What does this fold into?
Amino acid sequence: MEFKGTDRYYLNPELSEIVNIAIEMEKPLLLTGEAGTGKTQLAFEIARSLNLNMEIARCKSTFKGEELCYVYDTILRLNDSRFGTTDTGRDVNDIWDYLRFGPIGRAFLSDDKRVLLLDEIDKTDSDTQDNLLDVLEDESFIIREINHKVETKISPIIIITSNAKRELSDPFLRRCFCHYIPFPDIDEMHHIINLHFPKIDKRLRDNAMTVFYNMRQRGFEKPPATAELLDWIGALNKRGKISPMDDNKVLFMGSLLKRTQDILSFKNRTGSGR
It folds into this structure.
């Protein structure tokens, strides 16, 4: 089972090595890097390339490690005990009817190999990360209410992403293979654009990249990343443009810059933008 990249995802040799050794050794792979560099997309492309189903956890600050594994619905069981379960098919005396498995639980219990994506793990607090340490390493967890141990049937491919908004603990990092996805250089960006737009006019590609890399160096709060560049080129290509500029104004600037302050700053400095 080897991932070689796809028609939508450029895989450089260094990233290829760490992805495939993580798959082979069944270790979680932690991907860091600025937003828009393809961390999350990598998990989707691995699943698509290897024809695997996915379980996805979009992490939030309110998440606890346990609920990524399972949730015991006490409110539903209480309501059923009061009002009956005639039309529901549930048995109030059977706790399994009130357990809802989260993405980790579903990935562990699945009869087929899956890709488990824990997206933006840095949004969770340190307690949540600590709760996941043994779960990810042992590939098991305990349902406390019945003291039942859930063990993985087939080890999933675990991809974890972080935008480094909060430091992850050393014990958590120690249990992962880690890779920082740097921002693509010009040659790599050529490959990425050509994957997404194989018939693009080279003049548009080169002109857009010149403007794009110039804007990245202007010190914006959220500089445009690869995802924004692809959206921007898509919009320009859709309209049949050869140049990303018109009367010294950047076309479709809102597909590149997303923060209001960045847009206003750019317009004030250059008098451009549409």
In short: The chain is about 40% helix and 15% strand. The mean pLDDT is 90. The chain has two domains: 13-70+103-180, 186-267.
